[in-house]
Design a protein that fits this description.
globular; Nucleotidyltransferase, domain 5; 2 domains; alpha/beta
């Protein structure tokens, strides 16, 4: 900026006015993305989104009635408040509030959460010292089938459309066989596209905001709060995200399979 002021012999304010108001230019930081998508992956994303969009637009009520979605998430025993969340009003002469550097996050557990347009179907908390394998996920698939049978009368008769991301565990032979044994149809989720995962950028984000600033003594208290949070939301909360999914798929198609803006 100083070099431009010296060269043009005008004030810094005038330069900023030209840059912002006349050239319509602003300085922005880079956006972090999960992966540098190849042309092949972008084409796959477009094809998957178009397929999902066609299913949705052909019969919206049928789509909402048959769709079941789910994903895994890490749930920590403690989420410290961010600087933005801890902001508070103060008088110009009062001492600013202090916020100490947070300690490393405490223990955490993996929760696999399945839901549909009517609400929560199943939460599974992975036992400590275990990992999610193809066999474990296959057993979860049968548990999900039982949960749907108990909570959603008639949904199994309609036929379940399962939408989950393309992790190796989900694609394993034993998990795929379990999905078929349950009579479910697996929809194609766009590859390498967490921005299109229904759970990640809606349910999980809201859940983490709810947990921020709370420290839990153990898994049991954490799991109880998580389940209570899901049960405390009505059908409209889940319905809105399913209903807005078409907009995200269309955005992905419009940007030729690239990551969509938040």
């Amino acid at each position: 900026m100083s070099e431009i002021v010296k060269e043009l012999q005008i004030t810094a304010g005038s330069i900023e006015n030209i840059i912002h108001k006349h050239l319509h230019t602003s300085k922005v930081s880079s956006r972090w993305l999960p992966q540098n998508l190849s042309l092949h992956h972008q084409l796959q994303c477009v094809a998957s989104c178009q397929e999902l969009l066609d299913l949705y637009t052909s019969d919206k009520e049928k789509f909402r009635g048959r769709l079941v979605t789910g994903a895994e998430m890490w749930i920590h025993h403690w989420y410290p408040e961010s600087k933005l969340e801890s902001m508070q009003w103060k008088h110009v002469e009062s001492t600013p509030p202090k916020k100490f550097k947070p300690q490393p996050l405490a223990s955490k557990v993996i929760a696999t959460i399945f839901w549909d347009s009517e609400g929560l179907l199943l939460i599974d908390h992975l036992p400590s010292k275990k990992t999610i394998t193809g066999q474990y996920y296959a057993e979860l698939t049968f548990k999900l089938h039982d949960a749907i049978k108990q909570k959603r009368r008639g949904k199994l008769s309609l036929g379940v459309w399962l939408l989950h991301h393309n992790s190796p565990v989900h694609r394993s032979l034993v998990a795929q066989q379990a999905i078929r044994d349950c009579g479910s149809v697996q929809l194609n989720h766009p590859a390498y596209s967490p921005d299109l995962t229904l759970s990640d950028y809606y349910l999980f984000r809201n859940l983490k905001c709810h947990l921020h600033g709370t420290r839990f003594a153990g898994n049991e208290s954490l799991e109880a709060v998580v389940e209570a949070w899901f049960e405390g939301h009505d059908r409209e909360f889940f319905f809105q995200e399913i209903n807005s999914s078409a907009e995200k798929w269309q955005k992905c198609i419009d940007v030729a399979g690239d990551y969509i803006a938040k």
